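Feature request, filed as a ticket because there's no other form

It would be nice if the structure record came with a short human-readable summary line next to the C-alpha cells. Right now we just get the raw output. Example of a typical job, pasted below so the devs can see what we mean:
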Amino acid sequence: MNDAMRLVLLLAIVAVGLTAVGGLLARFFDPQRRLMRYLRQALQTEPEGVMLDRGIGKALAFNIEAGRVAILWDKGRKGLVYKMDQLMGGEMMVDHAVLARSYRDEPRKLLDEIPMSASKITLRLIFDNPRDPEFELELWPARHGRGHEYPSPAEAIVSGRRWLTSLDSILRRPAPRMLTKPAPLVPVLPEEEEDLAPPWDEEDED
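Raw output as currently delivered:
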C-alpha cells in the first residue's frame, strides 16, 4: 500500500513538473515575447513605440535616448537597426489609401475621422536607405489564423495614428551630432539557429 502511495505521489510530482516546464517553454517561445526579446537586443535597451504583427513575425520599435529604430521580420530572425536620423517618415494606409502621414520637412497629414471598418490597414515607414527604403507592417486583419492584434479595425487605426503622432514628435527634433552617420545593420541567422537571439552588434560605417 505504501509503495502504491509513493508511486502515485511520484507520478503527481512528475506531472506537475512537466506541466510547469511546458508552460515555461510556451511562454518563452510565444511569438510576442520572442519579438520583444529581439527588439530589446536590437535596440540594446527597452523598446518604445512597439508595433507587432505576430502572425508573420514582424515588429518595429524605437528608443529616443538610444537614437535607434529597429524593424524585424521573419519571426524576428532578420532585421535592420537604423539611427534615428535615417527615419524619413511614415504613413498609414487604409484599404490602399493614405489617410495619415508624417515626413521630415513636410506638412503632416492628420486623420480627422476614424473609419469604423476596413479590410486592410498598413503602417509604412520610409528610411534613408536605397537598398531597403521602406518597411510595411499590417495592423489589420489577423494573419495565419492568429487572434486579432486589435479588437476592431477602428482600434487598429487609433493605434496607428498614435504611433504616427510619436513619429511626428521625433521628426521635429534635431538629430544628435553623434548619430549623423548612416549605419543600417542586417543581422541574419542561419536557419538551424532560428530560435537564438540575432547578433545585434552595431557597426558604424565611415
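Something like this underneath would help us a lot:
Residues 2-28 form the longest helix (27 residues).
The chain is about 30% helix and 25% strand.
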